[in-house]
Amino acid sequence: MKKRILAYGRLNDEQLAQLGQDFEVQTFPDLASADDPAFRSALPDAHGLIGASVAITPELLEEAPNLEAIATISVGYDKYPVEELTRRGILLCNTPDVLTETTADTGFLLIMATARRAVELAELIKRGEWQTGIGPEHFGSDVHGKTLGMIGFGRIGAAVARRGALGFGMRILYTKASPKPELEVELGAERHEMDSLLAEADIICVTVPLTAETEHLIGEREFALMKPTAIFVNIARGQVVNEAALIEALEMGRIRAAGLDVFEQEPLSPESPLPHMTNVVALPHIGSATHETRHAMAQRAVDNLVLALRGEHPINLVNEAAWRSV
Ligand code: 8YV
Known about the structure:
Distance between the termini: 20 Å
Number of strands: 12
CATH class of the largest domain: Alpha Beta
Shape: globular
Strand order of the largest sheet: 8-7-6-9-10-11-12
Bound molecules: 2-keto-D-gluconic acid
Number of helices: 13
């Protein structure tokens, strides 16, 4: 009997056909919640899951005794109970590398848009308020030559920093548990303690993964350490930042502006003041959302799942310990 896959991510016909060669595939287009009754009732016979839209809880795993592998179409895996998956010998595969450059582009898009007030000033034209030359009340601040503080210096953080150092002549500071000597040579990056990075950087960009240690890493104390002219950009996860503290820092003018691709609650609640603030550029989590990159991510997830269900080592495995127990 063929193994069964529940596919709730956006896969194209060729990708579905690739899965269909060896496996039985049941699709759940636009699955918004794991509580969906059809999805729930399919779980007991599922050997593989592929998608990114829903959180997989330990309770849900109770209903999936045959599950062997999950391929998430994302690099982040904060929606998955990794320890529990490992305990059960279920492989968790993600999609690093293929989204690095696109997500770094999004970081720079937010840096540029906030520093140069692009969205706010585009709105001004729409309102028919561009009557005379733009005056100092609409001036932005330079990006080139400034100091960029990276909170997180993994693949995506390094790609943002590379754009800053090589394209914009920026000085790069970073905070990370282990030093990155090769990036210190390549980009002249300087490793700092968090507090001195916050105090020295003109632009601060968050790229750390969400873990128990990074939850609310940036809050009232950290915003207070930043320059009043600081621009704060988050392309990681909303929960890394205490959003109430961020709103207050923006409202009180403790920092100048924020560029946000991620929020504590997604989709963002209609009550949130953030997208309405003139000093905020808010995007609906588009970090990796280009045709090319989403295609590459879906393909990587398919390849990972095919390998995992064939008993071969997937290209990207989050929980290596689960492989050893297979
Ligand atoms: C995706 C992301 O938008 O890969 C990640 O971790 O945050 C984004 O690239 C998201 O996970 C949905 O696929």
